[in-house]
Amino acid sequence: MIEFKNVSKIYNENSFALKEINFQIVKGEFVSIVGQSGAGKSTLLKMIFAEEKPTEGSILIKGRNISKIKSDKMPILRRHIGVVFQDFKLLYGKTVFENVAFAMEVSGKTDNEIKDDVPQVLEIVGLTNKTSSYVNELSGGEKQRVSIARALVHRPDIIIADEPTGNLDLVNTWDIVQLLMKINQYGTTVVLATHNREIVNLISRRVITIEKGRVSRDQQDKGKYLI
């Protein structure tokens, strides 16, 4: 599903974000990418989404080298990858329904498709009672659920979550983690970046640790992790 082959992101001879990264993530896995701030987690996730390109090496998504993908093919790739951010990136002044619908509108979906699909994803994330609410009326956890709904609306093969609980309290953090695990149970591959040890231990799945731009550990057991 996802493969990094000798991937490096180098700025100059004295500065790099990632160095010689190698790993594979198979379809249906839930993988946590952990490490301290500045370790290179966000750069790694941006490469999966082709927002950043490697200086060296190749990145394969479903066997396709996205490191060399042409810009006009980028929208097709990104429909297979849903992205959830720490700061939500929602459209304030619009309703929950409109926020999710917008993601479909920009990809050319019809009004009937939007009418059918948006309620389905809002049900998955538990927001059927907030369809007409505006973003500024929502709690932090609800805003993140809208963000996840928007990421799900194209039925992606992969969900990338970059510190999705960084702005949330403990209760909402666990709710969002449980939602991501539920999505994974449907068969979607989930890649979560976090520096939160408690989250990683609660999930108890595979963990890839990034330290100073390199993979220092790749733990596939379901034990406790020190990060």
In short:
With 227 residues, this protein is an alpha/beta fold. 32% of the residues lie in helices and 28% in strands.
Overview of the molecule:
This protein is α/β, with parallel strands linked by helices and 227 residues long. The protein has one domain (28-53, 71-219): P-loop containing nucleotide triphosphate hydrolases (Rossmann fold, 3-Layer(aba) Sandwich), CATH 3.40.50. The chain is 32% helix and 28% strand. It is globular, with a radius of gyration of 17 Å.
Write the topology of this structure.
Blueprint: E1 2-12, E2 15-25, E3 30-34, H1 41-48, E4 56-61, E5 64-65, H2 74-78, E6 81-85, H3 96-105, H4 111-124, H5 140-152, E7 158-162, H6 170-185, E8 189-194, H7 197-203, E9 206-211, E10 214-219
Any key phrases for this structure?
four-stranded antiparallel β-sheet, alpha/beta, 10 strands, 32% helix, 227 residues, globular, six-stranded mixed β-sheet, single chain, Rossmann fold
